[in-house]
TrEMBL record:
Biological process, per Gene Ontology: phosphorelay signal transduction system; regulation of DNA-templated transcription
Protein species of origin: Hyalangium minutum
Domain Sigma-54 factor interaction residue range list: 146-371
Molecular-function GO term, any one: ATP binding
Name of the protein this chain belongs to: Response regulator of zinc sigma-54-dependent two-component system
Start and end residues of each Response regulatory domain: 8-121
Signal peptide (from-to): none
Disordered: annotated segments: 377-401
InterPro entries from the UniProt entry: AAA+_ATPase (IPR003593), AAA_lid_NorR (IPR058031), CheY-like_superfamily (IPR011006), Homeodomain-like_sf (IPR009057), HTH_Fis (IPR002197), P-loop_NTPase (IPR027417), Sig_transdc_resp-reg_receiver (IPR001789), Sigma_54_int (IPR002078)
């Protein structure tokens, strides 16, 4: 009797010598059951699932097509290998369109039989793993878009829930790409203000001369171009939540005015002296170490203490590696292409990488893999080259890889020393097209122009001749 832990293979053929041949080839590695015709195979399939079914096509009565259809109807995860004479190969190809895994053309080599069955079993295993991940993903808690079952994420979501219940300022810290905006939206959704506006602004993307107008509004004629009066974001968020992303990038002069607005709960539009009362709950986020910024004189201490009422640090992706397969499947499902999942090697590559750009970088990596994968599963070679084992240590990425990342992620990965190299790589990739480069970098076109000027990089030098 075969060992119970061996994979099960059903061999169906109306010739006894073929059944004996398959049993001899496969018997050592697999638990082989034989059926002398299609009708007996259908009877076995009515009550039992096999890992692989190897069936001849040409048989009296129920042929290989009937066996294939019954397998796929009753046991869709079972892989089917067809056996056919050379002249009937077109029929085997047709059967593969109906769900067969592969075919063996007579005469065949015993090693070929063992190889095809082993591949069929590997396909079944990978499909079951993918289905298991899909089931885990469906059952995983989704905290307003924040996915993960790791202890780090459970603790983070618990803290966000606690902070949401109290109507005070929340400060979200952590590396770029860790999901701070999702966390801010979760705080709003869990708070008593959930039915009121949620207004988000990236402070780092606002030109210094327009920050005050954007936050507090302006009167008609307050400055050139102010043809009408405009309410600021504080007024838009009245009664709700204002999310100040990258608050650590605010100019010092604006920090003074923001601190006063938070203290007095009122704002003054640019060009007026009339205070406007605002009822706003502020959630601020930054990838910077604000205490270090205070010590360096780049961030006001009084504003730091006003923001640092309830702090939640968003964990880096490398600190919750067990969430990576679930997140990867989530992003695969969002990509809109019906792939089955990832090969085990691809999942190992994803899990081993240090992810300097965190969840955002993982999403981009999966989107890229979906675009290039021939299917049905994403392989390691479909992933971005920087994810190769030689790049998994988490150190700075080479300049030619930096152009694949938004600017802030590149700077986080390799600090300011590579800013110029990043910009050069970006210009090279897009042939000096600042608009397309700004979209890739995740910043406004004007902001990219300022960076290019600061580092002496001329976009015209990279323009491609027609």
């Amino acid at each position: 009797m075969s060992a119970p832990d061996k994979p099960s293979v059903l061999v169906v053929d109306d010739k006894e010598n073929m059944l004996k041949l398959f049993s001899r080839i496969l018997g050592d590695a697999y638990a082989v059951t034989t059926a002398a015709d299609g009708e007996r195979a259908l009877g076995l399939l009515a009550s039992r699932e096999f890992d692989v079914v190897v069936t001849d096509i040409q048989m009296p009565g129920a042929d290989g097509f009937a066996v294939l259809r019954e397998v796929k109807r009753r046991w869709p995860a079972t892989e089917v290998v067809l056996v056919t004479a050379y002249a009937s190969i077109p029929k085997a190809v047709e059967a593969m369109r109906e769900g067969a895994y592969d075919y063996l053309a007579k005469p065949f080599d015993p090693d070929e039989v063992a190889l095809v069955v082993a591949r069929a079993l590997e396909q079944r295993r990978q499909r079951r793993e993918a289905e298991g991940l899909k089931q885990q993903l469906a059952a995983a808690p989704d905290f307003h878009g924040l996915l993960g079952t790791s202890a780090a994420m459970r603790q983070t979501c618990a803290l966000l829930t606690q902070g949401a219940a109290r109507d005070f300022t929340v400060l979200l810290t952590g590396e770029t790409g860790t999901g701070k905006e999702l966390a801010a939206r979760a705080v709003h959704a869990e708070s008593p203000r959930k039915g009121r506006p949620f207004v988000a602004v990236n402070c780092g993307a606002l030109p210094a001369e327009l920050v005050e107008s954007e936050l507090f509004g302006h009167a008609k004629g307050a400055f050139t171009g102010a043809t009408v009066a405009k309410a600021g974001l504080f007024e838009e968020a009245h009664g709700g939540t204002l999310f100040l992303d990258e608050a650590g990038d605010l100019p010092l002069a604006m920090q003074v005015k923001l601190n006063r607005a938070l203290q007095e709960k009122e704002v003054r539009r640019v060009g007026t002296t009339q205070p406007i009362n605002v009822d706003v709950r502020v959630v601020a986020a930054t990838h910077r170490d604000l205490q270090a910024e205070v010590s360096a004189g780049r961030f006001r201490e009084d504003l730091y203490y006003r923001l640092n009422v309830f702090t939640v640090r968003m964990p880096a992706l490398r600190e919750r590696r067990e969430d990576i397969p679930l997140l990867a499947m989530h992003f695969l499902a969002k990509a809109g292409r019906p792939l089955e999942g990832f090969t085990p090697e691809a999942l190992r590559t994803l899990t081993a990488y240090a992810w300097p750009g965190n969840v955002r970088q993982l999403e981009n990596a999966v989107a890229r893999a979906v675009a290039v994968a021939p299917g049905p599963r994403i392989r390691p070679e479909d992933l971005p080259p920087e994810l190769s084992p030689s790049s998994s240590g988490g150190g700075p990425l080479p300049a030619e890889s930096l152009a694949k990342m938004p600017y802030r992620e590149a700077v986080d990965s390799a600090r300011d020393a590579v800013s110029r190299e990043y910009l050069v790589a970006l210009m090279q990739e897009f042939g000096g097209n600042v608009t397309h480069a700004a979209e890739r970098a995740g910043m406004e076109r004007e902001s990219l122009h300022r960076l290019l000027k600061r580092y002496g990089v001329r976009s015209d030098d990279f323009k491609r001749s027609e």
